Amino acid sequence: MRYGGAEGTLALQHTSLSLARGEFVAVVGPSGCGKSTLMKLVSGLWPSTAGSVTVEGREVDGPLSSVGMAFQNPTLLPWRNILDNVMLPLEVVEPHRRRLRAERPAYEAKARHLLSLVGLSGFERKFPHQLSGGMQQRASLCRALIHDPKLLMLDEPFGALDIFTREDLWVQLQELCADLKPSVILVTHDLKEAAFLADRVLVMSARPGRIIADHTVPFPRPRRLEDTYGAEFQALQHRLRAEISAARRGDSIGGEEVAHVG
Ligand SMILES: Nc1ncnc2c1ncn2[C@@H]1O[C@H](COP(=O)(O)OP(=O)(O)OP(=O)(O)O)[C@@H](O)[C@H]1O
């Protein structure tokens, strides 16, 4: 993937990734290695300059409205209350769009249920500016999940939050995923977050980005925050950190282009 024509920035090179249904994959790597570019390609927000992307058996050739997305900035619409923000994808994504008018009470109940799962019962009629950053991010997760996306794309969704709120949200996201079973791609700089949430952690090289390691995370689910202090969990984080440091310096990992671990 190259931005800006033949002489432009080569952001991603020889990148191949496949996700099983319901799998949770985290992508980590040095700053500027192409993680967000990968997300833009998978969600169809940016066309690839070579290669192809297939979601649900169909080649991606434009923005995918069926995919659920959440970013570092919650991007809630300030003039809509929380319930209406969460329900927004239902006004866009078929078949919900067609059914929304007739089945509004059922959809509204679903939105309220999702909000209750993330501790936002009672805030449905509040506006985004009346909520803290963490609460807005919870609402944005509900919005990403309201239309039952098969694929959930999360680009540093908790990056702007304090560590306590972040950890709360990891637990809530884990519960939501156990319930709704979407496939997930999470881009993060937080290695603890990657190891806590993911089934696999992919490490990318410095630009042009390539996937240089693919770790299976062996810890059973549901995972508890206490587990993150265990020796195995710490060892995985250290290994990821070492690989990213090596990638920043441009070293290869174990002499191999891609290491499959686990
Ligand atoms: N729209 C664009 N036009 C030109 N170059 C771009 C564009 N978007 C990204 N790039 C370049 O592509 C490379 C990869 O960017 P990308 O945002 O995907 O990295 P990243 O891994 O998500 O970075 P970070 O971890 O800092 O968020 C960078 O060198 C960036 O400058």
UniProtKB/TrEMBL annotation:
Whether Transport counts among this entry's keywords is yes
- What is a GO molecular function of this protein? ATP binding
| InterPro entries listed in its UniProt record | AAA+_ATPase, ABC_transporter-like_ATP-bd, ABC_transporter-like_CS, ABC_transporter_ATP-bind, P-loop_NTPase
Query: Which UniProt keywords are given for this protein, alphabetically ordered?
Result: ATP-binding, Nucleotide-binding, Transport
Q: What residues does the ABC transporter domain cover?
A: 1-231
* Similarity comment: family membership: Belongs to the ABC transporter superfamily.
Annotated protein name in UniProt: Nitrate ABC transporter ATP-binding protein
Organism this protein belongs to: Teichococcus deserti
